[in-house]
Automatic annotation (TrEMBL):
Residues 1-21 form the signal peptide. The keyword Signal applies. Keywords: Signal. This is Uncharacterized protein. It comes from Fulvimarina pelagi HTCC2506.
Amino acid sequence: MLCAIALASLGSSVSSTSAQTAIDDSYCTQISERDKQASDGYPLTDAGSILRQDRANLHRYGRPDRGDDGDFTFVSQNARAQIPQLVTNGNSDPAVLDEIVYGTPSVCVNVYRNHMDVWFRY
């Protein structure tokens, strides 16, 4: 009986871990200078805000950059508002996030329930 309870507990733990690491969405995008300016004109200075504006330029304003893929996650303004925190919660290489701020890289994104990971597209 104790063994059955332990196995059931282990099974639910494994399922929970798998659900947490499942990719919910994935896309690639070209970061441009236009993505580094908020809709009301002020400059954006962190990778999360720039990635958020990139998705707003695609979904809200219909102005994607060449190389911007679509996604299903960030269609709404409320969903896009979560991007900076998702980036903060993620495991992205700091060099990739710095390049988003200081350059115009082509990057890919995996979106998970509670975080997102960003890497260079090659």
